[in-house]
Write a structure and sequence with these properties.
single chain, alpha/beta, Nucleotidyltransferase, domain 5, 10 strands, about 40% helix, ROK, ATPase_NBD, ROK family protein, ROK_cs
Length: about 350
């Protein structure tokens, strides 16, 4: 294939996946291609796994590696805007050697190509924005919340990810929200996040929030529920969605609390960025259609907007979520190449 290309790589706790994007903005890999991420084996093994993923998708796309100009990379956070892992570690990067590890630079040295970094929520948000607005991305703004093990967020203005000075902009999961008047039950303990805060959005609207805060409370209210038989809190938490899809009363109450928390969070976002679209992503929107629609309706009902905002409001789902991170990373890499090619230095050369 003629012309240049970029690769997008999405790093996860167990799997990596990737894609290839050509210079005209066409994705050349249609299916989800997953490779073990090996992050539990440490940084060196994880970087090699990313190289394997890159080689796999480049071959699948029928592209010569010499045609690849740049690579986009995303990982779970927290990490700096340049891809340096938090000094305190993270859920997916828990061992000591990961603390403060510069994964972007390590991959760049290994492959000899420029690497553009985003956290995984920002990458998914960028892709959702691109799909929804198409050629009008430069005139639009959006806010994304991605409900997973934690609660990720992404702020897009025009076609640019808002990162902030330290790279922590869009960490919507750690925004404290009002929990009175219907989010928590009167006797429900104040939920605590893994970050140490009480009452932030992630403490409720995440898999960890279910395991640590919501499920233990609700099981006391439903002493005969089958989830009592599962000892591991995270394993039990993963089953809550399955029960909710089947209409289980307790599980719907748990996800009802999550939906109200997301609505409160989007109400705050409306007053900061006044976006054109709010995207919701994660396992909760990859569920059965009836449950997904029920959840999104509950989010909408709990998002408080001014009349002018409500008249043009859209709350919808992140498309192609399994591939959204890699595709958003590829879009970021392509934008970096185009910006470099249009720079005065490039023009003068």
């Amino acid at each position: 294939m003629d012309g240049w290309h970029v690769v997008g790589l999405d790093n996860g706790g167990t799997k990596d996946n990737g894609t290839v994007l050509d210079q005209d903005g066409t994705f050349l890999v249609d299916e989800l291609i997953e490779i073990p991420s090996d992050v539990q084996l440490g940084p060196a093994a994880a970087v090699e796994a990313l190289v394997v993923t890159m080689d796999t998708v480049v071959n699948r796309a029928g592209v010569d590696i010499a045609q690849v100009r740049a690579v986009g990379l995303d990982t779970p956070g927290p990490a700096s805007a340049d891809g340096v892992m938090s000094s305190k570690g993270a859920t997916n990067f828990a061992t000591p050697e990961w603390r403060g590890f510069d994964i972007r630079s390590a991959l760049e040295r290994r492959i000899g190509l420029p690497v553009v970094y985003n956290n995984d929520a920002n990458a998914a948000a960028l892709y959702a924005h691109h799909v929804y607005f198409g050629g009008a991305t430069a005139q639009a703004s959006s806010v994304s919340v991605i409900i997973g093990t934690g609660l990720g967020g992404g702020l897009i203005e025009g076609s640019t990810v808002i990162r902030g000075r330290a790279g922590m902009a869009g960490e919507l999961g750690h925004v404290r929200i009002s929990l009175d008047d219907g989010v928590l039950e009167p006797d429900q303990p104040m939920p605590q996040c893994n970050c140490g805060q009480f009452g932030d959005a992630e403490s409720i609207a995440s898999l960890t929030g279910i395991a640590k805060n919501l499920l233990p409370y609700w099981l006391t209210r439903y002493p005969e529920h089958p989830l009592h038989r599962i000892a591991d809190p995270m394993v039990a938490a993963k089953q809550v969605r399955t029960y909710a899809e089947q209409g289980d009363e307790m599980s719907r109450k748990i996800f009802g609390q999550q939906a109200r928390a997301i609505g409160r969070l989007l109400s705050i976002a409306a007053n900061f960025t006044d976006p054109a679209v709010y995207f919701v992503g994660g396992g909760v929107v990859e569920a059965e259609a009836e449950f997904r629609d029920w959840f999104l309706a509950a989010v909408r009902a709990n998002t408080v907007l001014r009349a002018e905002q409500a008249a043009v409001e859209t709350i919808t789902t992140v498309p192609d979520l399994d591939m959204a991170g890699a595709r958003g990373s590829a879009l970021a890499a392509r934008a970096a190449v185009l910006a470099d090619d249009s720079s005065p230095r490039a023009t003068a050369g």
